[in-house]
Structure formats: structure tokens, C-alpha cells
Write a structure and sequence with these properties.
alpha+beta, elongated, 9 strands
Length: about 425
């Protein structure tokens, strides 16, 4: 038993309301009070009935009564007026400054509550320690919690978007630009792509969005992919000329980020991804304003379907022609990833900024319209009996695992409370 769990039991009323103090006095716990997150007693304004009267006051909670002295409460008169001292182990007598015994409750925690706690503390249920007890939680509680976790995940991502907005001096287009570049890294190159985007003046993108070639030169040049090309072909030479012009015009310095291509499909090579981004910004210069007002998932996907310039039909990297021809654009599944990781958080952040909840609701509807993600977390959660029928569920399951299951933060998981019910 640890103190955090004892507090959890107290505030969640996981005990019989009628208890006995250590001196044998019968009491009824009417209200456990409000948690105190600052210095002082653990609970404010608790209420009990004793001897036919209702008493109100503060409560201090310890695993062992002797913790009273270990925490130095005997020298703090703020604790003299406590209503109750709640303990798990009553190993010493605790008194007030005047020598009067402190009313002490040795909390009687039901056996089934302790069984779940001990099982989760010591268990190994795969991804989740609570696996043996998940059957106690009905489908409604599971669904509500997963959806709440999905909203929580989007709120976390929107905080990152707000951070990008601050770094972009309040420019929503630039914040979206950086976030989209990060998403285009698709995990492997996310950090490098974000660093690349941060090195590109957004004014340069705006001024040259009418030319896909110039945007390609800007993106590839800043990534350092134009340097060191042996025997550049005609198109690469054109990109070099364009980038040299842009470099001098905007005082650019290539960031030479480490964009990885090992173990990637050729269509996902960094140069191809940057060419696809150039095509998207060439077709849709005011991209963030467009996506935030697009509610239809099919229309939204199509915005990211810009074909890279014809050069890339026969190339996966500069000056190295491939043996087969194919148009280059991101796949529908990749477009969905961009929507999940960039568009939805952007809508959340923008809606909060302008004070319009309709944007957050639209974002959630987009998640509901996207097919569920398939990864080791969602597969495991399916085997545990959770539903995964849309990206909304997937994002909720991922958040639940990352935020609660993986760090074993069970006390903050709403499902854990349901498991305590017989």
C-alpha cells in the first residue's frame, strides 16, 4: 500500500461509508472532501456524522500513523484542527499539541479493491498490467474513456501547434508549414524535416509558390540535397541555378539535415517527399486556411494529392534515373496520417484561439471518417476487447497506452476505477 493509492481510495469512496475510529467510535463518512494540491492537509472540507452530529473539517492521509512524525506535522499547528487522521497502518498514537489524541481512522479497504491494486502492482498483462481485470469494465465505459483519451491526445498535439505558433510570431500559415513538414517525415525523418522547415523563410515560399521548380529548389537546396551531386543532369542543374538565386536573395544557409532513406521504399525517399511538398504548396499557397475550412474528408485528402513534377516520374533521387516510370504523390493512407498529425491538431489549436468549438468538433468528425490505424498498440488493444473502428479510436488507444499504461499511471485512468467494482 502506498499513500497515493490510499488517497485514491479515500477520494473515490472505495470503502463502506460506516467505519470505526481507532477508539471504537462509529462514524459515517458523508463527504471525503476536496483534494488539496498545495501545502497543508490532504483534503479540505470533509464531512462525517458522529454521535448524531455532522462535523466538517480537513483530513490528513498517511500509510502509517508514524508518518505524522516523519513528515514533521507534530510541530505544525496547522494540523491541530484536523477532523480526521486517516491511515492504513495504525502503528503509533498521534496527538495534538495539547496532548489530546487525534481522531484516527484506520480505513477499512474492501478485499476486492486490494486484490485489484495488488494484481495491477505486481502483474504483467502484456501492454497493460490490468488485463486480468478489464473484463469488469463494460463497453460503454470503455468507449467513453477511449474517446476522452482521443480528445486528450489532440489537445496535447494542439499545444505543440500553439508552441509552433509562438515560434512563428503568430503566423498561422508558417506554424502549419512547419508542422506539415514534420508530418511529412513520417516518424523516421520527422525531427530533420521540422528543422528543415524552420530554416526556410516562409516569405520565400509565399513569393515563389507560383513556380513548383523554385519551391523544389528551395526545399532541396535547404536540405543540402543539391550539394555534392556528381554529374548533375539538366534538371538538377536548373535546380542548382534556382537555389543559388534564392540563396543570395534570402541569405539562406543550408541546414544539411540528416534525412534518412535506409530501409525505405524508394517512393518515400526524402527528395521525393520534398518534391511532393513543393507540388502541394504550388497548388495551394494558402494551405492552412484551406484545410481548416474543409470539412469533407475526401476533399481534404485530395488537397494533399499534388503530383511531384514530371522529372520525378523517372527518378527517386537527383541525377539517378530509375528503370521504371511512375507518377509520384503520397498515398491515401499517407494523406490520412497528415490529417491526423497536422490538420486535426491545427483545427483544435485554431478553434481554441478564435474561441469557436466548431473547429474542434469538425476535427473529431474527420478522425471518425478515417480508417483505424494498425500498429502494435491498436492490435494489442483489440485483443483486449477494445473497439478500433476509426482513427478516433486509434488515437484514443494510443493515448491511453502512452499516457497511462506505459508509465503505469493507473490511478489516473478512469477504467481503473471501474475495475474496483465487484
Amino acid at each position: 500500500m502506498d499513500e497515493q493509492f490510499l488517497q485514491y481510495v479515500w477520494f473515490n469512496r472505495l470503502y463502506a461509508t460506516h467505519q470505526r475510529l481507532t477508539d471504537g467510535t462509529e462514524i459515517e463518512i458523508i463527504d471525503p472532501g476536496r483534494p488539496n494540491r498545495d501545502a497543508g492537509p490532504d483534503a479540505f472540507n470533509a464531512k462525517i456524522r458522529m454521535d448524531g452530529k455532522v462535523w466538517a473539517g480537513n483530513v490528513e492521509i498517511h500509510c502509517a500513523a508514524s508518518d505524522w512524525y516523519r513528515h514533521g506535522h507534530e510541530s505544525d499547528r496547522a494540523y491541530d484542527s484536523l477532523l480526521l487522521h486517516v491511515v492504513w497502518k495504525n502503528d503509533v498514537m498521534v496527538g495534538r499539541h495539547n496532548g489530546e489524541p487525534m481522531p484516527t481512522l484506520r480505513l477499512d479497504v474492501p478485499e476486492h479493491v486490494m486484490a485489484v491494486y495488488d494484481g495491477v502492482q505486481n502483474g504483467s498483462g502484456g501492454l497493460c498490467r490490468c488485463l486480468p481485470y478489464l473484463g469488469r469494465v463494460d463497453g460503454t465505459h470503455r468507449a467513453v474513456w477511449v474517446e476522452r483519451c482521443a480528445v486528450e491526445r489532440m489537445e496535447d498535439k494542439s499545444l505543440r501547434m500553439r508552441g509552433l505558433l509562438e515560434m512563428s510570431a503568430g503566423d498561422w500559415e508558417r506554424a502549419f508549414f512547419v508542422s506539415l513538414f514534420r508530418s511529412f517525415g513520417f516518424g523516421t525523418n520527422s525531427d530533420a524535416m521540422e528543422a528543415l522547415a524552420m530554416s526556410i523563410p516562409y516569405t520565400a515560399v509565399c513569393k515563389h509558390c507560383d513556380s513548383a521548380v523554385q519551391l523544389e529548389a528551395l526545399f532541396l537546396g535547404q536540405a543540402g540535397l543539391l550539394e555534392g551531386v556528381k554529374e548533375p543532369d539538366a534538371y538538377t542543374a536548373e535546380l542548382l541555378r534556382e537555389y543559388d538565386h534564392l540563396r543570395r536573395k534570402f541569405s539562406l544557409v543550408p541546414v544539411k539535415v540528416r534525412l534518412k532513406s535506409m530501409r525505405m521504399r524508394p517512393g518515400a525517399f526524402p527528395a521525393v517527399r520534398l518534391a511532393e511538398l513543393a507540388a502541394i504548396y504550388h497548388l495551394h499557397p494558402q494551405l492552412s486556411g484551406l484545410v481548416v475550412e474543409t470539412a469533407d474528408i475526401h476533399r481534404l485528402r485530395s488537397i494533399f494529392y499534388g503530383y511531384a513534377s514530371p522529372y520525378w516520374d523517372t527518378h527517386f533521387s537527383l541525377s539517378a534515373e530509375s528503370g521504371r516510370k511512375s507518377r509520384k504523390r503520397i498515398a491515401p493512407s499517407s494523406a490520412d496520417i497528415l490529417i491526423i498529425n497536422t490538420v486535426v491538431p491545427f483545427c483544435f489549436a485554431y478553434g481554441e484561439y478564435v474561441g469557436n468549438e466548431a473547429y474542434a468538433e469538425r476535427a473529431l468528425h474527420l478522425l471518425e471518417a478515417i480508417r483505424p490505424e494498425n500498429n502494435f498498440i491498436t492490435r494489442a488493444m483489440l485483443s483486449y476487447g477494445f473497439e478500433n473502428v476509426s482513427a478516433l479510436h486509434s488515437q484514443g488507444l494510443i493515448q491511453m497506452y502512452r499516457r497511462y499504461c506505459e508509465p503505469h499511471d493507473c490511478l489516473r485512468c478512469q477504467l481503473f476505477r471501474q475495475m474496483m467494482t465487484e
